[in-house]
Design goal:
Elements lengths: L2 E7 L7 E5 L3 E5 L3 H9 L6 E6 L2 E2 L5 H7 E4 L12 H11 L7 H11 L16 H13 L5 E5 L7 H16 L4 E5 L3 H7 L2 E4 L7 E4 H5 L2 H6 L6 H11 L10 H11 L1
Parallel strand pairs: 3-8, 3-9, 6-7, 7-8
Antiparallel strand pairs: 1-2, 1-4, 4-5, 9-10
Helix pairs in contact: 4-5
Length: 264
Amino acid sequence: MEIKFENVGYKSNLSYANFTITSSITGITGKNKQYVVDMICGDIFPMIGKVSIGNIELKEEEKEQIYKLVGVVRKQIDNSFLDCSVMHHIVRILDKSNYQNNNITVRIKDALQMVGLDESYLTRKIQTLSTGELKLIMIGAVLITNPKILILEEPILGLDFYNKRKILKMIHLLKEKYHKTILIVSEDSDFLYQYTEQVIFTDDCNRIQLYNTDEAFLDIDLLLSNHVEVPKLVKFTYKANRKGAKLHYHKDIRDLIKDIYKHV
């Protein structure tokens, strides 16, 4: 589902934003990233211009509709949930969003299945879950309402290799099989470079701008002007080529190693 920013201004010192987020995996990074997220969620509205999801312009009277379209998985769970069971946690989230469904138990089980968990987790205490399990529960809870747009805040932060792969596989599945528009909010440039198709930088002269991921992360000057860390694989290749190597840029270290054996 498309998200369109048209001549959008929120803070007086921000340049107008004009871009369209397509049905893709899009990264959002930089000091003003929260403004982008809050506007898409309907928590704040532009001072100038408009933000639209599909044919719905985001404004105060459309808040209920916005909440149905957009699901947000926060970086961390609210501490007040730690002593709750998973089922209690999910019910509290659904109550807060005013979600109603005659087959709510079935919807909950289906959502857990989508993230690779079974119904036995419903009786588990939140504080007994591993970091990876908790992240999957948080995503599953948001999926119950079947939002068209899913915003994930730092989805792999603190996860081990196994759980990172599990989360990344699930994100790909949500896009390809369930046709969700995925927004990933992160300061991890290596992650954004490898796994997104578009990226929004929000730092350069207070400008919010959308770029093709491959083009953006290979433009060192653009990264520096937006205070975005150069991805490790890009940095290595850039420095090697400046010393005379003829390496191609890669997102997978295994492909880079093959290239090194071929050209160095």
